[in-house]
Every structure is written in C-alpha cells, then in structure tokens.
C-alpha cells in the first residue's frame, strides 16, 4: 500500500531539511574569529612545517597506496588475535595462508620495483 | 543508554554528507573522499545494529562487527585502486577534474 | 566466550578456490616469464578455468552448504559458475592475440581477469549478504583496472575512472541497503531473512533497505535509470574486456539478484515485483531505442546489453521456477552469443587498428565470408531469430511471464525485440550489400580468435537447435 511508505517520505523530508537547516544556520550564526593558529592545517597535533601546498613527488603516492593496502589488511589479525587460543592450530594455519597471500603480493611489488625510489 | 535511533540519525546524516560530496565535487579525489564517508556511515549503522538488535547474545554473533571490518578493508582496496587510476589520468591529461575527463559523452 | 567456528567445507568453494590459486600462480609466473612467452600465462589461466569448471561439474546435485550457511553449492550457483568459467575462457582466447597486438600483453591482465572470475563465482554461490557484498567487490575492483588497462589510450583510462567512481558510489548504496536489512531482520543470512520476514511484517526501514539493494543490483547489471555509465565504459575499455564484462558480470550479479529477491524477500514481492516490472519496461525500451541511434558497434552492443538486462529482469518479475530456469538459460545463451559478436568484431580488426564504426564493415562479407557469417549468426541470435540460442531464451522468458500473469510485460518484450531487429541488421547489411572499403587486404584472423569464434557460433546454433539438454540442466538449478 502506498500509504505504508509515508514514514519513508517523512524521513526523507526530515533528513533533507535537517541537513539544509544545519548547514545554513552554522554558516549564518557561527562566530568567525580566524587567527593564524586556527587557520593552520591540522596535523594530528604536530606543529606543521612548511607550506602544505608545495609539490610532493608523485612517487610518494605509490608508497602511500602500498602502505594503505598492507596496513589495512592487517586488521584481520585483530579478530584472530582475540580468539587465537580457541581457534588452536586451525586458526594458525588459516592465518598462515592469509599471510602467505599477502607475502606473495609483497614479493610481486618488490620484484616489479615498487619500492625503488629512483 | 543512548537510543539506537541516535546512531542511525548520525549515520544517515554522515551518509548524506558523503553523498553530497560525491555528487557536488568535481575533483576526483574529493569524490573518492565522499564515497569513503558514505562507507563509514554504513559502518556506524552495522555496529549499532549489531549492538542493539540482538542485545541478548552480541558476543555470540559477531556478524555486524566482522562485516564492518570487511568494509574497512574493502574501502582501503577501493581507495588504492581509485588513487592509482586518478594518478594515471593525471599523468595523461594533467587534470583530476571529472568534468575535463570527457572524451566520450556521459 | 564461546564462539562457533563455522563449518569449513572447502569442497563446495573448490571452483572459486581453484580460480584464486590459478590467479596467484599466474601472478608469480608473470615475474619469471620473459616478454615473448607471456601468452603461456593465458594458456595457464584457461587451464585453471577448465579445472574449476570440472570441480563445479563434480559438485552437480550435491546441494551442499557450508561456512554456517554462507555459501552453497546448489545447481543454480553451479550453472552460473559454469557460465562464468566459459565466458572467461572464451574471453582469454580472444584476449591473447588482442593484448599482444595492442602491446599490453602483461600477465597482470590474466591475474585481474581471474580475480574477477573468483569474485563472480563467490557472488553466484553466496547465500549471505556479507558474502554477496564481498563477491561484488572482488568482481568489481579488478574490472576497474582492466577497463583502464590500455594506459596509453586516454579513452580507456576515462572508462576506468568512470566505472570506478560510479561502481564505488553504487556499492555504498548497496552496503547501506544491507545494513538496513540487517537492522530490520537481525541477520544477513538469506534463509534467516526469509524466515524472519515470514513471521513479522515489514517495516519502513526494511523497505528502504530493500530499495537500496535493488539500486545496487540495478547499477551492476545496468538497468535504466542506473545505466548511464555503461555506454562510456563499454566504449572506452579494451574490446576484450568489454566482451568479458558485458556477459560475466551480468551472470554473477543476476544470480545474486535472483537469490536475494526471489529467495529471501518473497514476503515483499508485491512491492518489488511492481518496481522490477517498471524497471524492465524502461530498460528494454530505452536500451533498444538508444541502440538504434548508435554508429559505433561497441556503443551499439553496450545499449543492446542494457536491453538484454531488461529481458532477464522479466524472468525475475515472473518469480517462478520456470522464470528462474529461463533466466539461467538466457544468461548462457547471451554469454555465447555476445562473446561471438565481440569475437567477430575483434577478428575484423587490423592489428591494433580496430574497426568499430558500422560503416567500416562495408564489404566484409567478400573479404572474410566466414567471419561475416559468424557475426551475422550472432546478431540474429541477439535479435531473437530462430533457430538460434537467443530465440529459445526469449521464448522461455516470455513464456514464464505469461504463465504467471504478466502477459503485458511479455508483449512489451516482444515489441522491443522487433525494434531491435533494425539495429542488429545494420552491420549485416553493411557487410553484405556495400562495396568493400579500403584496407581489407592482408588481414589475417588470429587462430585463437577463430577458435573462440567457432566455439561461440557452434554453441549459439546448438543451444538454438537442441536446447533440451541445457534447459534440463537449467531447470534443475532451483535455489535450495
């Protein structure tokens, strides 16, 4: 029945209205006292050095992408670590297979020269 | 305890913000960031549902949490591929603006 | 804290495992293979696919599920697995000479293709929304790269980035849909979702979730109005990649689409069947009308693939056992037919210079009578002429729709097929009726392309003349 979908319509209207109102209000009423320190880019608490707009070698992107991949895949160690006593040998073997596949990827990148800076 | 609805509303707002970013921005990197925001909004939903929908046995059935982990890793893989494609197109066209990437009509 | 370890049943995921291991071996092989022997990596990939197909065949009728009901080896999934393996093997046959001519013959091409196949098999045999999503991503991510594989060609890069941005965008919607369904039913397992919905009424949250799931699937199989990425991506991507993704992605995504909607969400059928029927009409009509206006064969086949997605969607609307088996048969028929058509287009290209405009085909019948005949057969099959595979597929799908009271939908489908005859025959007319264009002389069809073309055309005719065995196999493919 179409009437059953009324709550959906209401929700859509509310969501859109909320987003519009929140954005408008904050831009209209919010105080603006820009200081040099506030306008500095946030660097996770480190004092920034130099301008963020200087050019970075495009080679850095490859390193960054590889870092993302190998860094994030390690997340699967977390559930394994929580349960590793319970999973016994089976869990160890499974994790070994997982690490082996990651290692093959690592070997591939290495042999293809992904780690060469020059 | 904070009601489930609050989490869902935060997630919905976050999803809409990401959606807005993905639709309104013309810079491919910014679109990618919008998409990542949408995925993270879903993660909030997944974990909130996991905690609230079956509070009796949340430790037995970890589906919601594990799903969130999968989403995180897939988002990383997606970001890596996206950045690689953006770099490749920047090298050949000197732009990351999707409106300039228009050899073929959309 | 006790945790249930899922029942590990490696046998039922053997096809996907074999493909994955082949991909890893080919990746390592790429490191040690000299440039002039790269084609052996292609042969190795085909061997892996053949072994995977045998593994799938040995599981026929097993109807086993494993990993806490997350994956299943039922005949529906296995039929799709075989279809996907066949399409991948034929695509690789076409690819080996193609990527050599375009100087992109790297082992990574096969690795990405195999990874995508593994994702497709996972998606087709998954019975849990988490696993379906994993399969969807695993099939999509390599395809984004494959679409952009001709790095020197900006059109290919453009196809890759467009496919990526829209694909990633649509997976976010799909994922949000899964999260809402999970919230509404407390589970991601398809069987448990069905059980939960059988007891309790739906909620608005569930409806939104189901709607978003449909949007996600609609993006992947290119249903109107979520199709606008298709022509650009299919046009810009390397022709062999276009051939592969136009058929295999459809097989995998439609598999999960049917499983999710027909099996897990029959409780909401009243709502989603109406939506699907509207989408089917829009998709068929817009796909065929837009195809009429194209002068480029790749773009024409792209719009044609949109139209075919519309026909298959009719089978979902029918929501019956016959609808399911007719969709399976149609996907197989479409796979061999479309690969044959793309194979003929590749066979008519001159080294790295491809003939993609319809007017380029002028006089091809005089220079290459056999290739022209193959292309004609495949185009006639796409249009739905008897005695070819496409006719039987359409006949079964429209029949299933009529049986379940959706006769008007079948009528629109038939009218659309009539419209499509016009644009499918245009290249044929060019080939047979026009004077030969310049530059036909001295073009040799690569033996592997000829082999793939032969297999495809024989299948098109065989499925059209003796459809009974394949229909019987498809009919056994009920979802458990």
Give an account of the 3D structure.
The complex is a heterotrimer of chains A (118), B (106) and C (480). Chain A has helices spanning 6-29, 36-39, 59-73, 77-82, 84-111. With 118 residues, chain A is an all-alpha fold. The N and C termini of chain A lie far apart (66 Å). Chain B has helices spanning 4-24, 28-53, 63-93. Chain C has helices at residues 14-32, 39-58, 75-101, 107-125, 129-147, 154-185, 190-199, 204-221, 230-236, 239-264, 269-292, 297-318, 321-347, 364-367, 369-383, 389-403, 407-433, 447-465, 468-475; strands at residues 64-66, 71-73. The model of chain C has no long low-confidence stretch (mean pLDDT 90). Chain B binds chain C through residues 8, 15, 18, 22, 28, 31-32, 35, 38-39, 41-42, 45-46, 48-49, 53-54, 59-60, 62-64, 66-67, 70-71, 74, 77-78, 81-82, 84-86, 88-89, 92-93, 98, 101-106, and chain C through 1-4, 130, 133-134, 137, 141, 144-145, 148, 151-152, 154-155, 157-162, 164-165, 168-169, 171-172, 175-176, 178-180, 182-183, 186-188, 228, 231-232, 235-236.
Quick tags:
heterotrimer, A: 118 residues, mainly alpha, Methane Monooxygenase Hydroxylase, Chain G, domain 1, B: mainly alpha, Helix Hairpins, 3 helices, elongated
Summarize the structure.
The complex is a heterotrimer of chains A (118), B (106) and C (480). Chain B is mainly alpha-helical.
Number of domains of chain B: 1
What is the percent of helical residues of chain B?
Answer: over 70%
**Beta-sheet strand percentage of chain B?**
under 5%
> What coarse outline of chain B follows from CA principal-axis ratios?
elongated
User: Most extensive chain contact?
Assistant: B-C, 46 and 43 residues
Taking the sheet with the most strands of chain B, its summary is: none
Poorly predicted runs of chain B:
none
Number of strand segments of chain B: 0
- The helical percent of chain A reads 55-70%
Shape of chain A: flat
CATH C-level of chain B = Mainly Alpha
| CATH fold type of chain B | Helix Hairpins
Rg of chain B, alpha carbons: 18 Å
Q: What is the CATH level 1 assignment of chain A? A: Mainly Alpha
**Mean pLDDT of chain A, as a whole number?**
81
- Count of DSSP E strands of chain A? 0
Backbone structural class of chain B: mainly alpha
- Written as H for each helix and E for each strand, in order along the chain, the element string of chain A is HHHHH
